[in-house]
Amino acid sequence: MKVVVVSRSGKEVVKGGIVIKDTALVSDLQEAIYSRAKKFYPSRQRLTLPLPPGSKVKPTVLDPKKGLKEYTEGNADSLTVVFKDLGPQVAYSTLFFWEYLGPLVIYPLFYYFNVYKYLGYGGERTMHPAQTLAMYYWCFHYFKRIMETFFVHRFSHATSPLSNVFRNCAYYWSFGSYIAFHVNHPLYTPVSDLQMKIAFGFGLICQVANLYCHLLLRNLRGPSGSGGYVIPQGFLFNIVTCANYTTEIYQWLGFNIATQTVAGYVFLVVAAYIMTNWAFAKHRRLKKLFDGKDGRPKYPRRWVILPPFI
Ligand SMILES: NC(=O)c1ccc[n+]([C@@H]2O[C@H](COP(=O)([O-])OP(=O)(O)OC[C@H]3O[C@@H](n4cnc5c(N)ncnc54)[C@H](OP(=O)(O)O)[C@@H]3O)[C@@H](O)[C@H]2O)c1
Description:
This protein is α+β, with helices and mostly antiparallel strands. It is 48% helix and 8% strand.
């Protein structure tokens, strides 16, 4: 079979095309492109089927695990694919590791080192129990996330664009610094002892629940991350589609009620907004995949992210 690889503007990416076995997979084609154009390793490539000029529909993305023949529509001798360079890629675990390492390191720096004396707040700082517990709570949270990244999550996408590392690190590292600066500030006023203990206790329960949700999500897929999307079942997933986001948001609420800073609440609102958008997309995807037609199960009625509101 001959495969012609063109860019979106119609220019040939691999001069003269590629001759490949009829039984080849899309991943074999990606390797063949890589061997001819060394810059474009397979995870950098997005291959789609060409669309008729002026068409507004989304192009079909070629699945690396499928055979090329599945895309030839009866004509097994030739195929034209459209190539897009996705740019430099990093593993998902690398992306998550760097974005979480920042807050894990930055927060204790504000706790242990009196950076405030360089900002005009001379003298000794007395740390309140709320500030100490907040530091442990925070570090536990980000340490847990790093551990989950390496030992729990089974990602369906192997890589993410390198540019996301810079974007996500900017988000997590700057919010981490902003909150750490205010919670560890010499002028910090703690909430009552009772409020602090109840809120941290509630937050900790939500963190454990969040870990449990991630373990349930892990078990939806095989060890290689294969198996596509499945209806999540069990524990809070029986009532809410994105129970992992629900518990994430509520654990930040616990942290904020215990520490009470504007910085912490700003982060909570931004994080909740981002997760709500993702949760709606995931809910829609599951409803579309499990539509109850042609023998497919019907996605049950569930809240999207924040019962009893959304
Ligand atoms: N504070 C913040 O700003 C913030 C923002 C986002 C996330 N987080 C935290 O980070 C955690 C991970 O976030 P995430 O967005 O990666 O979570 P996620 O997309 O909900 O999923 C976690 C893992 O489970 C898989 N998964 C989800 N639904 C599935 C289904 N129906 N069938 C099979 N597998 C499924 C995902 O696969 P895929 O690889 O296919 O997606 C992913 O590997 C969150 O739960 C939350 O605790 C925090």
